[in-house]
């Protein structure tokens, strides 16, 4: 999540057990900064984005080259919603090192995607909830309570409020429903 090129996806080649910890995540932690409602950020590419396959080897998750998670953990995409999320970002102590933890058994072929655990989201002042509204077609939408921009996914809205909304002025998330 440190560069603007996460058009790469990371998928499980073997079953990844629930509770497995990866990390720590190196660099400045900006999970979701480049999250978009679209699957790939930036212009549509004609080539298929590269897929990193990772597998369990002697209790550790490694890529095809045998590299540890520190080499590729930054390529794991931010989850747009809870349904596609397979990992959560956690820290043992507020302000401590950040790890990713498997929320459930991840099956072979499944993409790894991550979002903040509730305590970590609160530590970083990322909204924990997003209440959907329905547009004229009856589809769920998430609306920024500062600038009224509309999003398809709850985590896209949360990332927008934290990283991009000019009208939020860095104000903390207001804990009330709209």
From TrEMBL:
Residues 1-117 form the SET domain. InterPro entries: PRDM13_PR/SET, SET_dom, SET_dom_sf, TR-Histone_Methyltrans, Znf_C2H2_type. Its main location: nucleus. Keywords: Metal-binding, Nucleus, Zinc, Zinc-finger. Residues 142-164 form the C2H2-type domain. Pfam families: PRDM2_PR. GO terms for cellular component: nucleus. It is found in: Nucleus. Transmembrane segments: none annotated. This is PRD13 protein. It comes from Ramphastos sulfuratus.
């Amino acid at each position: 999540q440190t560069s603007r090129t996460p058009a790469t996806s990371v998928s499980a080649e073997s079953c990844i057990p629930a509770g497995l910890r990866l990390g720590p995540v190196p660099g400045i932690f900006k999970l979701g900064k480049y999250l978009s409602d679209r699957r790939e950020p930036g212009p549509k590419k004609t080539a298929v984005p590269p897929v990193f396959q990772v597998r369990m080897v002697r209790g550790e998750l490694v890529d095809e080259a045998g590299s540890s998670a520190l080499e590729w953990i930054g390529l794991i995409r931010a989850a747009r919603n809870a349904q596609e999320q397979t990992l959560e970002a956690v820290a043992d102590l507020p302000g401590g090192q950040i790890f990713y933890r498997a929320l459930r058994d991840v099956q072979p072929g499944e993409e790894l995607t991550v979002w903040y655990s509730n305590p970590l989201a609160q530590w970083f002042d990322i909204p924990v909830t997003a209440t959907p509204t329905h547009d004229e077609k009856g589809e769920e939408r998430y609306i920024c309570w500062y600038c009224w921009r509309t999003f398809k996914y709850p985590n896209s809205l949360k990332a927008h409020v934290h990283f991009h909304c000019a009208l939020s002025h860095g104000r903390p998330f207001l804990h009330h429903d709209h």
